[in-house]
């Protein structure tokens, strides 16, 4: 499996949460297919130069969320059953995290709630047509 995971200890987001979001995003986008094996805890920890307990925590939470399943001695795999449901939930989780991060950032800049709401509304209008379909960028 190619190394698709990265971590940045300087973002302020705990590393295990970064891993969870990346796995969920990869499942949602089809980068990780149902049944695909994830790197072992030890291998991913070595590749990313992080504590194996951090990877194990991320994997436990992903398993609890129904995104992956772990078999002792075999490894961790993207869930086969309900993978589409898990992928849909993962899309919502990733989108929610991105919006939360954007709002947190706007607040840290000292922007008022009404201004953030206006910015968000402009983004919605820019990216979504009136019928709710996604617009192409630049159209």
List the helices and strands and how they pair.
Blueprint: H1 15-28, H2 41-48, H3 52-64, E1 68-71, E2 75-78, H4 83-108, H5 113-127
Antiparallel strand pairs: 1-2
Q: Tags for this entry?
A:
139 residues, mainly alpha, Arc Repressor Mutant, subunit A, two-stranded antiparallel ribbon
Task: Tell me what you see in this structure.
The chain has 139 residues and is mostly helical. It is 55% helix and 6% strand. Strands 1-2 form a two-stranded antiparallel ribbon. A hairpin with a 3-residue loop joins strand 1 (68-71) and strand 2 (75-78). Residues 135-139 have low confidence and may be disordered.
What name goes with the CATH superfamily of the largest domain?
A: Winged helix-like DNA-binding domain superfamily/Winged helix DNA-binding domain
Average pLDDT score? 85
Order of helices and strands: HHHEEHH
Low-confidence segments, ≥5 residues, pLDDT <50? 135-139
Name the shape in a single word: globular
Strand order of the largest sheet: 1-2
Determine the N-to-C terminus distance.
Answer: 37 Å
How would a crystallographer describe the biggest sheet?
2 strands, antiparallel
Helix content: 40-55%
| Main CATH class of the largest domain | Mainly Alpha
Total individual domains: 2
Radius of gyration: 18 Å
CATH topology value of the largest domain: Arc Repressor Mutant, subunit A
Classify the oligomer.
single chain
- Helix-strand makeup class: mainly alpha
Strand content: 5-15%
């Amino acid at each position: 499996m190619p190394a698709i995971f990265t971590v940045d200890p300087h973002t302020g987001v705990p590393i295990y949460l970064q891993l969870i979001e990346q796995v969920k995003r990869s499942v949602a986008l089809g980068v990780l297919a149902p049944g695909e094996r994830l790197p072992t805890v030890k291998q991913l920890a070595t590749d990313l130069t992080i504590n194996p307990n951090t990877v194990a925590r991320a994997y436990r939470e992903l398993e609890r969320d129904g995104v992956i399943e772990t078999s002792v001695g075999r490894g961790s795999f993207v869930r086969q059953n309900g993978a589409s449901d898990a992928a849909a939930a993962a899309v919502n989780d990733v989108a929610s995290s991105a919006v939360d991060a954007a709002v947190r950032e706007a607040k840290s800049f000292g922007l008022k709630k009404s201004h953030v709401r206006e910015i968000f509304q402009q983004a919605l209008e820019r990216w979504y047509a009136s019928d709710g379909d996604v617009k192409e960028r630049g159209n």
